[in-house]
Amino acid sequence: MRDTAESYGLVSRFLHWLMALLLFWQFAGALLYVGIGDTAVTRFVGGRHLELGAVLFVLVILRAGWALINRERRPIRHGLADRAAGFGHALLYGLMLFIPAIALLRQFGSGKPFSVFGLRVMPGRSERIAWLEAPADLLHYWLGFALLALALGHASFALAHRASGKRHLLRRML
């Protein structure tokens, strides 16, 4: 269940791959919408963007908490490349926390009610709060694509390590 110096545990691996799948779904919806506009396909894939973002936000909080609990047990990092990987992981976690956080601020500022799968997260109001909406309007979209680029880089480095034969880092997460 818990992480070890050689490998990530079952909980870490489950959260990693679940979030990877859900993030893929989020990005597929966004990229399809940018590419082909508002269609039945984009409404199906991206139709639950807000709810899925809220689920991802909860999952990343759980995942970060689990990582902190296991920080002394996690695979050991050595050298400059591992420190760079640690920095990349910190950026990934930071964006996965910040992007939905500012989206929630925008939602609250809009005055619109927000429910996740039928559970009310925030009630609606008659007036908007523009200064709460502005940061997400400015950053949410572009930081989402920065997160996509980082996630693709993360996957590419794992596959490159596997292909090089030097270090099978991917095995830690399988």
For the residues shown, what is the average pLDDT? 87
- State the total count of DSSP E strands: 2
Strand content: under 5%
Structural class: mainly alpha
Q: What is the makeup of the main sheet?
A: 2 strands, antiparallel
Description:
It is a single chain. The chain is mostly helical and 174 residues long. 70% of the residues lie in helices and 4% in strands. It contains 5 helices and 2 strands, in the order ααααββα. It has helices at 10-36, 40-46, 49-69, 79-110, 130-164, and strands at residues 114-116, 119-122. A two-stranded antiparallel ribbon has the order 1-2. Strand 1 and strand 2 form a beta hairpin. Helix 1 (10-36) packs antiparallel against helix 2 (40-46), helix 1 (10-36) runs antiparallel to helix 3 (49-69) and helix 4 packs antiparallel against helix 5. The mean pLDDT is 87.
Fold blueprint:
Blueprint: H1 10-36, H2 40-46, H3 49-69, H4 79-110, E1 114-116, E2 119-122, H5 130-164
Antiparallel strand pairs: 1-2
Helix pairs in contact: 1-2, 1-3, 3-4, 4-5
Which tags fit this structure?
2 strands, mainly alpha, two-stranded antiparallel sheet, single chain, about 170 residues, globular, about 70% helix
In short:
The protein has 174 residues and is mostly helical. The chain contains 5 helices and 2 strands; from the N terminus they run ααααββα. It has a two-stranded antiparallel ribbon with strand order 1-2.
